[in-house]
Design brief:
The protein is mainly α. It contains nine helices and no strands. Helix 1 packs across helix 2 and helix 4 runs parallel beside helix 7.
Amino acid sequence: MSETAARSLRADAERSVRTILEAAERVLAVDPGASMEQIAAAAGVARTTIHRRFANRQALIEALALSAARQLADAVDDGRPDTAPPLVAMHRITANVLQVKGAWTFALELPGDAGSDAARLHEDIARRCIVLLKRAQDDKLIDEGADLEWVRRVYYALLGESLRSNPDNDDPDTLAARIIDTLLHGAGPRR
């Protein structure tokens, strides 16, 4: 087999896996107990295609969790948390994360198995969040006495609440601005 043909087969396999994972997210978000057959139907593939890619339902769920965690990590990377000005990075990361979390609600709410690749990615994202919050603190955007772990948890809660209740169906940039404003200034009167 030529190198070009092998690359084409790999690309087809990757597309197939991506299609299956996207279908699994849609189906499982509505019915967490959905069968492999239901996921296959939603993906437009035979059940045997899913079983060829994933040994069992648990393997599919683990792949789904890892794929979503990777997309979340990419969303953080895209915000340039280590190099962009902290406020710019916070806004961009927040808008990116809202998009990923909105698209992968089921997968990102799965309880991560300790030590799994997905869990390690989430731990790294949390660590990087603290580093960015420290940069923001150094820039006087966050009080010098603030507990950054607490600030991170509040930030995560704001993200979650924004996704759960967005009655105006605001775009990610508008929601990001609201989240960052609330995180940095609270709900008190402006000076």
